[in-house]
Design brief:
177 residues; alpha/beta; five-stranded parallel beta sheet; three-stranded antiparallel beta sheet; 5 helices; 10 strands; 20% strand; HAD-like_sf; HAD_sf
Amino acid sequence: MSNTNKRYPKAVVFDLDYTLWPCWCDTHIYTPIKSLNNSTIIDSNKFKLSFYKDVEKIILELIENNIIIIGASRTATPSVAKKILSLLEIGDEPAINHFDSLQWGQGTKINHIRKAAKELDIVDELKNGEFILFDDESRNKDVESINVHFAHIKDESRGLTMEIFNKELKKWHEKYK
């Protein structure tokens, strides 16, 4: 059932590290990694990793409302990020299946978002302010220069929460209505 009280942008972009999960996958995770269950992985040092508590609910809400989901990460180990997203499940299937585009590598998130918009043929929507980026690093606020609403995830211990998600959706709506 879609949520008629909310207005959504065309695309929601998620940073990964300290936004969707509580670590940097390129410095905290040691391969090989494997699933303990559908919501937890373990690395070779016995470090256990799961999504933050509200991430699954948020992504399922976006899917239910036909919102494009993009991952944008500066990770130096995209293979590890891809493996994590392949092992952790959302809605009984690998999380990676719910991302319409994954953009990896160093450099500004502006480039990640532009590449995704071009790949998904939604460049006009990008120009029209129909994107939100959820990210823990304040330096990525520069995406506002390309008309993307920047939603800062300030608390590494909690990551993306439903409260932050709803608050930022409302801010985006007020800015672009």
